[in-house]
């Protein structure tokens, strides 16, 4: 099955950029998704990228995809305290999504 | 917009007790899933269903049972609760149409707010 790897923690200062990285093994994913989980809540879809794209920008969010290396990243510009959450990478394509362990983003003043 | 509704939000069980975690969705989604989330371990799939009357095991099904008698409901049953089942449980649903062109929205999962279960 699909293996998805993410680092567990990322700590940034408010106003800085955050970059959350993800590597995956299944190259057949048509879409690759990022979900956000705020404390005490379920996951919500944050953004996604089509597999034939290298980059997608959505306001403060930039998704970069290196399909050759099976590497996906999420950049959050001007990180705010409200961005503190767990971020999950989820390659699509199998209809049974596999999630990484999630990266806890900690934003401090 | 109700979306995916899970009940209860919190529950404490004694070892050996049984309970059912309820999940219902009002979006007419065909796929439904149960995940458990342990600290630092991400989400692990317990069971999933591709439609009413059809269920299948995920990665960690032992100790759980499910049924899908209607499109809307997908309850998760714990028959003999064990401390290893202490976790946060999430139900999710998706509208997936196999075959043909895959749209991004086809694979989007909608999650409930979770049930925090402690087995003591």
What's a quick, concise take on this entry?
Chain A is mainly β and 109 residues long. Chain A is built from no helices and 10 strands.
Low-confidence stretches of chain A: none
The count of DSSP E runs of length 2 or more, i.e. the number of strands of chain A, is 10
Poorly predicted sequence stretches spanning 5 or more consecutive residues of chain B: none
Q: Mean pLDDT of chain A, as a whole number?
A: 91
Strand arrangement within the widest β-sheet of chain A reads 1-3-8-7-6
Name the structural class of chain A.
mainly beta
> Could you estimate the helical fraction of the residues of chain B in percent?
under 10%
Note the topology.
The complex is a heterodimer of chains A (109) and B (120).
Chain A: E1 4-6, E2 9-13, E3 18-24, E4 31-37, E5 43-50, E6 55-58, E7 61-66, E8 71-76, E9 85-91, E10 103-108
Parallel strand pairs in A: 2-10
Antiparallel strand pairs in A: 1-3, 3-8, 4-5, 4-9, 6-7, 7-8, 9-10
Chain B: E1 4-7, E2 10-13, E3 19-25, E4 31-38, E5 42-51, E6 54-57, E7 64-66, E8 76-78, E9 87-94, E10 110-111, E11 115-119
Parallel strand pairs in B: 2-11
Antiparallel strand pairs in B: 1-3, 3-8, 4-5, 4-9, 5-6, 7-8, 9-10, 9-11
């Amino acid at each position: 099955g699909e293996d998805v790897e993410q680092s567990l923690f990322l700590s940034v200062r408010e106003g800085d950029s955050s970059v959350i990285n993800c590597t995956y093994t299944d190259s057949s994913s048509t879409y690759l998704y990022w979900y956000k989980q705020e404390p005490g809540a379920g996951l919500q879809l944050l953004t996604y990228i089509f597999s034939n794209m290298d980059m997608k920008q959505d306001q403060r969010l930039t998704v970069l995809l290196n399909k050759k290396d099976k590497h996906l990243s999420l950049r959050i510009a001007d990180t705010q305290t409200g961005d503190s959450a767990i971020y999950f990478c989820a390659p699509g394509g199998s209809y049974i999504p596999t999630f990484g362990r999630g990266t806890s983003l900690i934003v401090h003043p | 917009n109700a979306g995916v509704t899970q009940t209860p939000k919190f529950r404490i069980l004694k070892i050996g007790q049984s309970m059912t975690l309820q999940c219902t969705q009002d979006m007419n989604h065909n796929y439904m899933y149960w995940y458990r989330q342990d600290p630092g371990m991400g989400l692990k799939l317990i069971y999933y269903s591709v439609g009413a009357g059809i269920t299948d095991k995920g990665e960690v099904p032992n100790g759980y049972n499910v049924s899908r008698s209607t499109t809307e409901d997908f309850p998760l049953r714990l028959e003999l609760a064990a401390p290893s089942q202490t976790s946060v449980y999430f139900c999710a649903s998706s509208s997936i149409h196999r075959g043909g062109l895959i749209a991004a929205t086809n694979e989007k999962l909608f999650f409930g707010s979770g049930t925090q279960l402690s087995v003591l």
